[in-house]
Request: fold
Amino acid sequence: MVGSKSRNLIGIALLAAIIGVTNSCTKAGDPMNGDGGNNGGDGSPGANEVWIKGMAFGPSTITISAGTTITWTNKDAVTHTVTSDNGLFDSGSITGNSTYSRQFPTAGTYPYHCTPHPTMTATVVVN
Ligand SMILES: [Cu+2]
Reply:
């Protein structure tokens, strides 16, 4: 009796494992999670996100791996920009509640600032 009971348990465990594998396969096929503004107005920036809030970039230094796309979200009412100190990129005007995204394919250190507010500075580090 003990033997058949444990066989049943093994069967259940195998079934659970198969279901688990099936589920993870389905999930692996999904597109990666977009940030799509789902973070709402509270909390803190998600991975690969920079918030422009209170006249500052946060985090002021963000470190990513090459090929990653960063999304900046302007949480302020005033217009800001994300402008490379070296002329490599420029978002143009980012009005309140708007976003700007840019992919960084190449490793390096990319300092940037806000054109209307030159004291707003920050850095992207790409490894
Ligand atoms: Cu600004």
Observations:
- Residues 80, 114, 116-117, 120 surround copper (II) ion (CB under 6 Å).
- The domain at 49-126 is CATH 2.60.40.420 (Immunoglobulin-like).
- The chain has one helix and eight strands.
